[in-house]
């Protein structure tokens, strides 16, 4: 069916213009610093509506369906605002939590959710029942229309940049300054995008031709992909699963399943009675599809092993969600194949429509308190710490800080409260993680730093402690990476004056500095190691240090000086 677009262009232009002005307002709020800049929950909510609803309207409105389109798209736009408000609230308190880690996941999931909701709302607004063939056409029309409209808007912007550069080359800077002003380019690009949507919506016959072309290409590629999947499955009993896990096998299997399902749904998109293959190839295809649940079982086993070993992480939560969604399709197909054999395509259409709604629901739930991966991970990690499955001294504070947003912040504050008295170095690491790096203030308070400094013997002077604090607090990232500081007196140059070794036990290595008194002040130098100290060697090193097993060795080769130039033998 071909959509004839007679909708007055003024309305489409108005929608695009309003979108551009809304995005301009939000940009200026961030740039200048007025509301809602300091309230990320409102930023996320308003950006969600500003992006989602106008695009849904531009792609759906046509004469006679305005009320139906608004009926189905407005609730989704409102829901997206509510979910955006929740996700934005996870970036609070704003002085400690950045929303960088929230952006990609939120944008990605809402893109998928909007894509799915758009084609379902378009189909329902048309008054026809839900069918996979109709949804498939809507999905490709929407995807290609938006892609081509963005290409049009990008080309428009490139021409403007060329325009400005040409006139700037002859001394006329007006156009370059105008085109780079947000007050110009937000409305201009939004209008260009709106015009692009209007133009390409009138070319549905071309878009449908492109869709049929990719169907023809995937028809041949699907046969090869099924062959690869069958051969790989039959090779596994001879190789075992261990080589698969060592090479990231779970992710590879999920990719293979995703490609198989994409190709199957691209090829079998028409009426269930129409088969693009001969009978024996048709049976070969569905034999390969019937084996997909085995791949789901293998990937579930591999992912479960990782969770048992290391607990939940954001990536593992995503992997399990993808596994679940990819497992639903072949399970539904398998039931149709077992029941209908050659006529299983009837079941394919039903499964795709139903599981498509499950995918939509999953993308929305991820951005709600009901399935917030950050909360799941933070809770699991706290539980593993309580069960002594994680060494609290090796806690990956940076992961909590950079990946888990507000739940990570709350978890670290809880850890700090519980372990603050017994592990001051851990408290120092947590405080450094939330340090304002733009501030000119020292990276840590002196008393907090000295509490994390373990003096192994002797009584260092206050001037030495102050010098160590001033030196070490200059590097915030090193403090965040340090499990413990040790201070040990030793006369390293044998001049009769005590020097001090400052040993910093980082998460993955050990640093050693010598502090010595010269020119009426404490100075420091790094000591280079003949070999890296990592893994179990770290604990052996610390045990030897604390027990005083220190040996001072004279160099085998003395330093040679000739006319003020020094020479030393290099190992």
UniProtKB/TrEMBL annotation:
Source species, domain of life: Bacteria
TM annotation in the entry: 12-30, 42-61, 68-88, 103-121, 142-163, 183-200, 220-238, 250-268, 280-298, 318-336, 348-366
Pfam families xrefs: DUF4153
Keywords: Membrane, Transmembrane, Transmembrane helix
Keyword Membrane assigned: yes
InterPro entries (alphabetical): DUF4153
Protein name: DUF4153 domain-containing protein
Native source species: Sessilibacter corallicola
């Amino acid at each position: 069916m071909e959509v004839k677009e007679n909708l007055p262009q003024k309305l489409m232009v108005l929608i695009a213009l309003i979108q551009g002005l809304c995005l301009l307002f939000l940009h200026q709020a961030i740039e200048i610093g007025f509301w809602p800049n300091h309230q990320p929950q409102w930023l996320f909510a308003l950006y969600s509506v500003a992006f989602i609803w106008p695009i849904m309207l531009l792609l759906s409105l046509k004469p006679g369906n305005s009320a139906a389109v608004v009926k189905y798209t407005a609730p989704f736009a409102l829901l997206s605002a509510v979910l955006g408000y929740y996700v934005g609230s996870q970036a609070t308190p704003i002085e400690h939590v950045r929303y960088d880690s929230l952006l990609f996941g939120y944008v990605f999931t809402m893109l998928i959710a909007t894509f799915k909701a758009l084609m379902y709302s378009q189909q329902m607004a048309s008054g026809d029942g839900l069918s996979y063939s109709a949804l498939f056409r809507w999905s490709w029309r929407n995807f290609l229309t938006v892609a081509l409209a963005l290409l049009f808007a990008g080309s428009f912007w490139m021409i403007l940049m060329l325009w400005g550069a040409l006139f700037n080359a002859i001394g006329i800077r007006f156009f370059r300054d105008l085109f780079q002003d947000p007050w110009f380019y937000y409305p201009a690009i939004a209008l260009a995008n709106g015009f692009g949507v209007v133009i390409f919506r009138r070319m549905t016959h071309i878009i449908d031709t492109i869709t049929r072309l990719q169907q023809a290409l995937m028809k041949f590629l699907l046969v090869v992909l099924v062959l690869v999947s069958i051969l790989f499955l039959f090779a596994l009993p001879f190789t075992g699963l261990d080589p698969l896990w060592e090479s990231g096998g779970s992710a590879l299997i999920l990719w293979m399943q995703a490609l198989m399902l994409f190709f199957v749904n691209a090829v079998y998109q028409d009426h269930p009675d129409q088969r693009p293959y001969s009978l024996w190839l048709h049976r070969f295809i569905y034999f390969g599809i019937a084996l997909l649940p085995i791949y789901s079982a293998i990937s579930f086993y591999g992912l479960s092993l990782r969770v048992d070993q290391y607990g939940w992480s954001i990536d593992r939560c995503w992997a399990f969600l993808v596994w679940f969604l990819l497992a639903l399709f072949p399970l539904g197909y398998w039931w149709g194949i077992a029941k209908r054999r050659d006529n299983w395509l009837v079941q394919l259409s039903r499964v795709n429509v139903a599981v498509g709604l499950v995918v939509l629901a999953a993308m929305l739930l991820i951005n709600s308190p009901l399935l917030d991966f950050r909360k799941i991970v933070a809770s699991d990690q706290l539980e593993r710490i309580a069960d002594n499955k994680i060494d609290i001294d090796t806690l990956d504070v940076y992961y909590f800080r950079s990946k888990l947003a507000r739940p990570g912040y709350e978890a670290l504050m809880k850890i700090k409260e519980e372990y603050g008295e017994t592990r001051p170095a851990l408290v120092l690491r947590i405080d450094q993680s939330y340090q304002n790096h733009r501030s000119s203030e020292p990276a840590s308070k002196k008393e907090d730093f000295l509490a994390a400094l373990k003096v192994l013997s002797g009584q260092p002077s206050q001037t030495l402690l102050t010098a160590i604090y001033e030196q070490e607090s200059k590097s915030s990232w090193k403090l965040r990476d340090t499990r413990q500081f040790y201070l040990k007196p030793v006369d390293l140059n044998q001049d009769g004056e005590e020097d001090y070794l400052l040993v910093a036990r980082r998460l993955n290595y050990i640093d050693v500095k010598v502090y010595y008194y010269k020119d009426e002040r404490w100075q420091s130098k790094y000591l280079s190691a003949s070999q890296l100290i990592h893994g179990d060697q770290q604990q052996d090193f610390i045990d030897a240090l604390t027990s005083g097993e220190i040996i001072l060795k004279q160099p085998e080769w003395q330093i040679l000086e000739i006319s003020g130039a020094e020479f030393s033998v290099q190992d």
